[in-house]
Automatic annotation (TrEMBL):
This is UDP-N-acetylglucosamine 2-epimerase (Non-hydrolyzing). Pfam families: Epimerase_2. The keyword Isomerase applies. It comes from Rhodoplanes roseus. GO terms for molecular function: isomerase activity. Gene3D superfamilies: Glycogen Phosphorylase B (3.40.50.2000). InterPro entries: UDP_GlcNAc_Epimerase_2_dom, WecB-like. PANTHER family: UDP-N-ACETYLGLUCOSAMINE 2-EPIMERASE. Residues 54-344 form the UDP-N-acetylglucosamine 2-epimerase domain. Transmembrane segments: none annotated. The keyword Isomerase applies. Keywords: Isomerase. Belongs to the UDP-N-acetylglucosamine 2-epimerase family.
């Protein structure tokens, strides 16, 4: 087997590629990373994810640049390049791989919202990667069907499940002594909020923040907003008209601390695709700040609700999930049947002798 290069530029990519790399390392498979510089991730991972940066060979670009990435890949000359998801880093990595005539493997292939402009530019990136990848690792049968409907050969698609579930499980095992099981029904209801998408800037951010402020007027509610370099809602939360002693804006957490926060929250409010997946796995009720989602399978049990940025809907549906008598109670690990995606990917790479 030739050398393998992972290309990643954002924290979610590295998190979802981490379990694959971990298995490769344990099996003695030669691999390394190129970090594109799209996000600053080295300081945000810490324990246990920092272990991956401490134990692998990687090069880091100062900022995302297609020409610089092409040159890096050319010098490495990998037989196999692995990219994940739908970021600009993934697309640039895919282009660099094809220009080097490397075999391109796409992890989390086949997600589709059906709207080329939403989410933007992720939907365009997904479609573009499907056109140039040699093999497609789909997280679900629905994703596989999307690819087949677009003309991708069935033998080039492998339904693996989602590697983020492997990452969550690795974190939970690492922190097993501290995490325990979530305990609910206390006096306070904890809401965890992440919001970073371009679509939720401007008026949308004001609507979201107004809804959070109204929720915070309930003395039983505590809200934690994770700051982000694109988080307009966190900026608004610091303004006087939205001040509330029950709203706390915090810096980005290490991944293990973030998973712990999800585990012990009564409700997650987010516009993030990755957080939808993590909340689903951990069994947390979820308000999705989008009008459409490429992860529609998470809406089927009623514990995940699409509300867009409608202030009234955010408030009413949040109250319903927090205090309603029919509030879903989903055990941690309900999606364990789809863990093992990372092992399936490594098995395919080795058995196919790519």
């Amino acid at each position: 087997m030739g050398n393998i290069v992972f290309i990643a530029g954002t924290r979610p990519e590295l998190i979802k590629l981490w379990p694959i790399s971990w298995i490769m390392k344990n099996q003695g498979l030669d691999h390394s990373f190129i970090l594109t510089g799209q996000h600053c991730i080295k300081g945000s991972l810490l324990c246990p994810l920092a272990q991956i940066l401490d134990s692998i060979t990687y090069e880091a670009l100062p900022t995302l640049s297609l020409s610089a990435l092409v040159e890096k890949v050319k010098r490495r000359d990998p037989k196999v390049v692995i990219v994940q998801g739908d970021t600009n880093s993934a697309v640039f990595g895919g282009v660099a791989a094809k220009l080097n005539m490397s075999c391109l493997l796409h992890v989390e292939a086949g997600l589709r919202s059906g709207d080329v402009y939403f989410p933007w530019p992720e939907e365009i990136n997904r479609v573009a990667l499907s056109r140039i990848s040699n093999y497609h690792y789909a997280p679900s049968s629905a994703a596989r069907l999307n690819l087949i409907n677009e003309g991708i050969q069935a033998e080039k698609i492998l339904v693996t499940g989602n590697t983020v579930f492997d990452a969550v499980e690795m974190v939970r095992k690492d922190k097993a002594d501290n995490l325990g099981c979530p305990v609910f029904g206390g006096l306070n209801k904890r809401i965890l909020v992440t919001c970073h998408r371009r679509e939720n800037w401007g008026r949308s951010a004001i609507n979201i923040m107004a809804a959070l402020y109204r929720l915070s007027l309930n003395p039983k509610v505590r809200i934690e907003i994770i700051d982000h370099h694109h988080n307009a809602v966190a900026l608004l939360a610091r303004q006087s008209q939205f001040f509330s002693p029950r709203i706390n804006v915090v810096f980005p957490k290490t991944y293990s601390d973030f998973i712990e926060s999800i585990t012990f929250s009564d409700l997650i409010i987010t516009d993030s695709g990755g957080v939808q997946e993590e909340a689903f796995y951990l069994g947390r009720p979820l308000i999705i700040l989008r009008n459409i989602t490429e992860r529609s399978e998470y809406l089927q049990d009623g514990a995940s609700i699409l509300v867009g940025v409608d202030e009234e809907l955010i408030v009413s549906k949040s109250i319903e999930l927090l205090f309603g008598k029919s509030r879903a109670s989903i055990p941690v690990g309900r999606a364990k049947f789809v863990t093992g995606a990372s092992a399936a990917i490594v098995s395919h790479i080795t058995s196919a002798q790519l």
